Amino acid sequence: MSRGIPAVVQLQHVDKIYGNGVVALRRLDLDVGEGEFLSLLGPSGCGKSTVLRLVAGLGEVSGGRIEWPSANGRAGLPRGDIGFVFQEPTLMPWATVFKNVLLPLKLRGVPAEEATARVREAIGMVGLDGFERAYPRELSGGMKMRVSIARALVTHPRLLLLDEPFASLDEITRFKLDNDLLALWARQRWTVVFVTHSVYESVYLSTRIAVMTARPGRTASEVAIEAPTPRDEAFRTSLLYNEYCRQVSARLAEAMHS
Q1: Is 28 within 8 Å of 13 (Cβ atoms)?
Q2: To 5 degrees, how large is the angle CA 24–CA 27–CA 32?
Protein backbone atom coordinates (compact mmCIF):
# COMPACT_ATOMS: atom_id res chain seq x y z
CA MET A 1 0.00 0.00 0.00
CA SER A 2 1.22 3.49 -0.82
CA ARG A 3 2.65 5.39 2.10
CA GLY A 4 0.51 8.15 3.46
CA ILE A 5 -2.79 6.42 2.59
CA PRO A 6 -4.71 5.44 5.75
CA ALA A 7 -5.78 1.81 5.93
CA VAL A 8 -9.46 0.90 5.98
CA VAL A 9 -8.73 -2.68 7.04
CA GLN A 10 -5.59 -4.67 7.83
CA LEU A 11 -5.24 -8.46 7.78
CA GLN A 12 -2.35 -9.53 9.97
CA HIS A 13 -0.93 -13.09 9.82
CA VAL A 14 -4.40 -14.41 9.03
CA ASP A 15 -5.01 -18.17 8.92
CA LYS A 16 -8.24 -19.81 7.81
CA ILE A 17 -8.78 -23.53 8.35
CA TYR A 18 -12.18 -24.98 7.50
CA GLY A 19 -13.94 -27.66 9.49
CA ASN A 20 -12.99 -30.33 6.96
CA GLY A 21 -9.30 -29.58 7.55
CA VAL A 22 -8.68 -27.55 4.38
CA VAL A 23 -6.15 -24.81 5.05
CA ALA A 24 -7.35 -21.91 2.86
CA LEU A 25 -5.06 -19.15 4.15
CA ARG A 26 -1.76 -19.27 6.02
CA ARG A 27 -0.20 -16.15 7.59
CA LEU A 28 -1.71 -13.77 5.06
CA ASP A 29 -0.82 -10.09 5.47
CA LEU A 30 -2.75 -7.44 3.57
CA ASP A 31 -3.53 -3.74 4.05
CA VAL A 32 -6.40 -2.11 2.15
CA GLY A 33 -5.94 1.64 1.73
CA GLU A 34 -8.67 4.26 1.77
CA GLY A 35 -9.96 4.96 -1.75
CA GLU A 36 -7.79 2.47 -3.61
CA PHE A 37 -8.83 -0.14 -6.15
CA LEU A 38 -7.08 -3.30 -4.96
CA SER A 39 -7.26 -6.55 -6.91
CA LEU A 40 -6.54 -9.95 -5.40
CA LEU A 41 -4.98 -12.08 -8.12
CA GLY A 42 -4.21 -15.76 -7.89
CA PRO A 43 -5.06 -19.25 -9.14
CA SER A 44 -8.44 -20.84 -8.45
CA GLY A 45 -8.68 -22.15 -4.91
CA CYS A 46 -5.99 -19.90 -3.46
CA GLY A 47 -8.31 -18.26 -0.93
CA LYS A 48 -9.18 -14.99 -2.68
CA SER A 49 -12.90 -15.37 -2.00
CA THR A 50 -12.14 -16.44 1.56
CA VAL A 51 -10.36 -13.13 2.14
CA LEU A 52 -13.45 -11.21 1.02
CA ARG A 53 -15.75 -13.26 3.22
CA LEU A 54 -13.56 -12.72 6.28
CA VAL A 55 -13.41 -8.97 5.65
CA ALA A 56 -17.20 -8.90 5.21
CA GLY A 57 -17.68 -10.69 8.52
CA LEU A 58 -19.08 -13.83 6.87
CA GLY A 59 -16.57 -16.05 8.64
CA GLU A 60 -14.09 -16.12 11.50
CA VAL A 61 -10.30 -16.21 11.22
CA SER A 62 -8.57 -19.32 12.56
CA GLY A 63 -5.46 -17.36 13.46
CA GLY A 64 -4.10 -13.84 13.23
CA ARG A 65 -6.37 -10.81 13.29
CA ILE A 66 -8.30 -8.30 11.22
CA GLU A 67 -7.88 -4.69 12.30
CA TRP A 68 -10.07 -1.70 11.35
CA PRO A 69 -7.87 1.35 12.05
CA SER A 70 -10.50 3.90 11.05
CA ALA A 71 -13.50 2.20 12.69
CA ASN A 72 -13.11 4.13 15.96
CA GLY A 73 -12.31 1.09 18.02
CA ARG A 74 -15.20 -1.02 16.72
CA ALA A 75 -14.65 -4.59 15.59
CA GLY A 76 -15.23 -3.50 12.01
CA LEU A 77 -17.15 -1.16 9.77
CA PRO A 78 -20.90 -1.09 10.29
CA ARG A 79 -22.53 -3.70 8.05
CA GLY A 80 -24.11 -0.98 5.92
CA ASP A 81 -20.65 0.41 5.13
CA ILE A 82 -19.65 -2.79 3.29
CA GLY A 83 -21.13 -3.80 -0.07
CA PHE A 84 -20.58 -7.32 -1.41
CA VAL A 85 -21.06 -8.43 -5.03
CA PHE A 86 -20.88 -12.19 -5.48
CA GLN A 87 -19.86 -14.22 -8.53
CA GLU A 88 -23.51 -14.81 -9.44
CA PRO A 89 -26.16 -12.06 -9.27
CA THR A 90 -28.39 -14.05 -6.83
CA LEU A 91 -31.43 -11.93 -7.64
CA MET A 92 -34.96 -12.69 -6.45
CA PRO A 93 -36.63 -13.97 -9.66
CA TRP A 94 -40.12 -12.95 -8.51
CA ALA A 95 -39.09 -9.32 -7.85
CA THR A 96 -38.53 -6.43 -10.25
CA VAL A 97 -35.20 -4.68 -10.66
CA PHE A 98 -36.45 -1.91 -8.39
CA LYS A 99 -37.46 -4.30 -5.62
CA ASN A 100 -34.23 -6.31 -5.88
CA VAL A 101 -32.19 -3.15 -5.40
CA LEU A 102 -34.53 -1.95 -2.64
CA LEU A 103 -34.07 -5.09 -0.52
CA PRO A 104 -31.05 -3.98 1.61
CA LEU A 105 -32.75 -0.69 2.47
CA LYS A 106 -36.01 -2.43 3.31
CA LEU A 107 -34.19 -4.77 5.67
CA ARG A 108 -32.61 -1.74 7.36
CA GLY A 109 -35.92 0.04 7.76
CA VAL A 110 -34.96 3.06 5.64
CA PRO A 111 -37.99 5.36 5.18
CA ALA A 112 -39.83 4.82 1.89
CA GLU A 113 -39.18 8.23 0.37
CA GLU A 114 -35.44 8.11 1.06
CA ALA A 115 -35.22 4.48 -0.06
CA THR A 116 -36.96 5.23 -3.36
CA ALA A 117 -34.53 8.06 -4.12
CA ARG A 118 -31.51 5.91 -3.31
CA VAL A 119 -32.75 3.00 -5.41
CA ARG A 120 -33.27 5.28 -8.40
CA GLU A 121 -29.82 6.76 -7.87
CA ALA A 122 -28.17 3.31 -7.74
CA ILE A 123 -30.05 2.05 -10.81
CA GLY A 124 -28.97 5.16 -12.70
CA MET A 125 -25.36 4.70 -11.63
CA VAL A 126 -25.19 1.29 -13.29
CA GLY A 127 -26.96 2.43 -16.46
CA LEU A 128 -30.29 0.67 -16.00
CA ASP A 129 -32.67 3.63 -16.12
CA GLY A 130 -35.93 2.44 -17.66
CA PHE A 131 -35.56 -1.15 -16.42
CA GLU A 132 -36.94 -0.60 -12.93
CA ARG A 133 -40.03 -2.74 -13.61
CA ALA A 134 -38.21 -5.51 -15.47
CA TYR A 135 -37.81 -8.98 -13.97
CA PRO A 136 -34.50 -10.90 -13.89
CA ARG A 137 -35.74 -13.36 -16.54
CA GLU A 138 -36.04 -10.43 -18.95
CA LEU A 139 -32.42 -9.32 -18.48
CA SER A 140 -29.13 -10.39 -20.05
CA GLY A 141 -26.32 -11.75 -17.89
CA GLY A 142 -24.55 -8.41 -17.92
CA MET A 143 -27.71 -6.55 -16.92
CA LYS A 144 -28.32 -8.96 -14.05
CA MET A 145 -24.82 -8.24 -12.78
CA ARG A 146 -25.51 -4.50 -13.02
CA VAL A 147 -28.55 -5.03 -10.79
CA SER A 148 -26.38 -6.92 -8.32
CA ILE A 149 -23.89 -4.05 -8.28
CA ALA A 150 -26.69 -1.50 -7.83
CA ARG A 151 -27.98 -3.50 -4.87
CA ALA A 152 -24.52 -3.28 -3.28
CA LEU A 153 -24.23 0.45 -4.02
CA VAL A 154 -27.67 1.43 -2.72
CA THR A 155 -26.42 1.29 0.88
CA HIS A 156 -23.70 3.87 0.04
CA PRO A 157 -20.91 1.52 1.14
CA ARG A 158 -17.51 2.77 2.14
CA LEU A 159 -15.89 -0.54 1.20
CA LEU A 160 -17.01 -2.46 -1.90
CA LEU A 161 -16.05 -6.15 -2.21
CA LEU A 162 -16.43 -7.85 -5.59
CA ASP A 163 -15.84 -11.59 -6.02
CA GLU A 164 -15.09 -12.28 -9.71
CA PRO A 165 -18.36 -10.60 -10.70
CA PHE A 166 -17.75 -10.71 -14.47
CA ALA A 167 -16.08 -14.13 -14.79
CA SER A 168 -19.07 -15.85 -16.43
CA LEU A 169 -19.75 -13.10 -18.98
CA ASP A 170 -18.60 -12.90 -22.59
CA GLU A 171 -15.51 -10.81 -23.27
CA ILE A 172 -17.31 -7.84 -24.86
CA THR A 173 -19.75 -7.55 -21.93
CA ARG A 174 -16.93 -8.01 -19.45
CA PHE A 175 -14.87 -5.20 -21.00
CA LYS A 176 -17.90 -2.91 -20.93
CA LEU A 177 -18.61 -3.64 -17.27
CA ASP A 178 -14.92 -3.21 -16.39
CA ASN A 179 -15.04 0.23 -18.00
CA ASP A 180 -18.25 1.19 -16.23
CA LEU A 181 -17.05 -0.05 -12.83
CA LEU A 182 -13.78 1.86 -13.17
CA ALA A 183 -15.60 5.03 -14.19
CA LEU A 184 -17.91 4.71 -11.18
CA TRP A 185 -14.96 4.21 -8.85
CA ALA A 186 -13.15 7.22 -10.32
CA ARG A 187 -16.20 9.39 -9.59
CA GLN A 188 -17.17 8.02 -6.20
CA ARG A 189 -13.78 6.89 -4.81
CA TRP A 190 -15.05 4.04 -2.72
CA THR A 191 -12.46 1.61 -1.45
CA VAL A 192 -12.68 -1.47 -3.70
CA VAL A 193 -11.31 -4.99 -3.27
CA PHE A 194 -11.80 -6.98 -6.47
CA VAL A 195 -11.13 -10.71 -6.81
CA THR A 196 -10.02 -12.02 -10.20
CA HIS A 197 -7.87 -14.72 -11.76
CA SER A 198 -7.28 -12.60 -14.87
CA VAL A 199 -3.95 -10.78 -15.12
CA TYR A 200 -5.35 -8.53 -17.84
CA GLU A 201 -8.43 -7.51 -15.85
CA SER A 202 -6.41 -6.85 -12.71
CA VAL A 203 -3.97 -4.56 -14.53
CA TYR A 204 -6.73 -2.67 -16.28
CA LEU A 205 -8.77 -1.97 -13.16
CA SER A 206 -6.38 -1.64 -10.28
CA THR A 207 -4.27 0.91 -8.52
CA ARG A 208 -2.58 -2.03 -6.78
CA ILE A 209 -2.52 -5.81 -7.23
CA ALA A 210 -1.85 -8.29 -4.44
CA VAL A 211 -0.57 -11.56 -5.96
CA MET A 212 -1.45 -14.64 -3.92
CA THR A 213 0.18 -18.04 -3.75
CA ALA A 214 -1.63 -21.31 -4.40
CA ARG A 215 -3.42 -22.77 -1.39
CA PRO A 216 -2.77 -22.16 1.42
CA GLY A 217 -3.02 -18.59 0.21
CA ARG A 218 -0.82 -15.75 1.32
CA THR A 219 0.35 -12.52 -0.27
CA ALA A 220 3.45 -13.29 -2.32
CA SER A 221 4.01 -9.83 -3.82
CA GLU A 222 2.33 -6.56 -4.70
CA VAL A 223 2.42 -4.45 -7.86
CA ALA A 224 1.36 -0.80 -7.97
CA ILE A 225 -0.28 0.13 -11.29
CA GLU A 226 0.79 3.70 -11.86
CA ALA A 227 -1.41 4.67 -14.76
CA PRO A 228 -3.96 7.48 -14.93
CA THR A 229 -7.65 6.84 -14.32
CA PRO A 230 -10.25 6.59 -15.70
CA ARG A 231 -8.78 4.24 -18.29
CA ASP A 232 -10.03 3.37 -21.75
CA GLU A 233 -9.32 1.20 -24.77
CA ALA A 234 -6.22 3.24 -25.56
CA PHE A 235 -4.73 2.02 -22.29
CA ARG A 236 -5.57 -1.62 -23.13
CA THR A 237 -3.43 -1.38 -26.26
CA SER A 238 -0.63 0.72 -24.79
CA LEU A 239 2.95 -0.36 -24.18
CA LEU A 240 2.53 0.55 -20.50
CA TYR A 241 -0.41 -1.83 -20.11
CA ASN A 242 1.44 -4.65 -21.84
CA GLU A 243 4.51 -4.08 -19.68
CA TYR A 244 2.45 -4.24 -16.51
CA CYS A 245 0.77 -7.44 -17.76
CA ARG A 246 4.17 -9.02 -18.34
CA GLN A 247 5.35 -7.96 -14.90
CA VAL A 248 2.26 -9.23 -13.12
CA SER A 249 2.27 -12.50 -15.10
CA ALA A 250 5.85 -13.09 -13.98
CA ARG A 251 4.93 -12.38 -10.34
CA LEU A 252 1.99 -14.78 -10.59
CA ALA A 253 4.20 -17.53 -12.03
CA GLU A 254 6.67 -17.03 -9.17
CA ALA A 255 3.86 -17.11 -6.59
CA MET A 256 2.45 -20.37 -7.92
CA HIS A 257 5.82 -22.07 -7.44
CA SER A 258 6.75 -20.52 -4.11
Answers
A1: yes
A2: 95
Which sign, positive or negative, has the C-alpha torsion 156, 113, 123, 134?
positive
**Does any domain span residue 84?**
no
The pLDDT, as a whole number, for residue 70 is 64
Range of 20's domain? 1-77+159-167+175-258
Model pTM above 0.85? yes
In a domain, 244, yes or no: yes
Whole-angstrom Cα distance, residue 160 to residue 66? 17
Residues 252, 163 share a domain? yes
CB 141 within 8 A of CB 168: yes
Q: Looking at the structure, do residues 153 and 215 belong to the same domain, yes or no? A: no
Find residue 223's DSSP bridge partners: 209
- Which of 76-85, 156-165, 196-205 has the weakest average pLDDT? 76-85
Dist. CA 20–CA 35, nearest whole Å: 36
11 close to 50: Cβ distance less than 8 angstroms: no
**What backbone torsions phi and psi does residue 189 show, to the nearest 5 degrees?**
55, 45
Single residue among 128, 157, 186 that ends a domain in this structure? 157
Domain assignment of residue 246, yes or no: yes
Compute φ and ψ for 210, nearest 5 degrees.
-100, 115
pLDDT tens, position by position, 92-151 = 999 999 999 999 999 999 999 999 999 999 999 999 999 999 999 999 999 999 999 999
List, for residues 8-18, the tens digit of each pLDDT value.
999 999 999 99
Question: Would the CA dihedral through 24, 207, 169, 43 be positive or negative?
Answer: negative
Is the per-residue pLDDT at 55 higher than 50? yes
Identify whether 82 is part of a domain: no
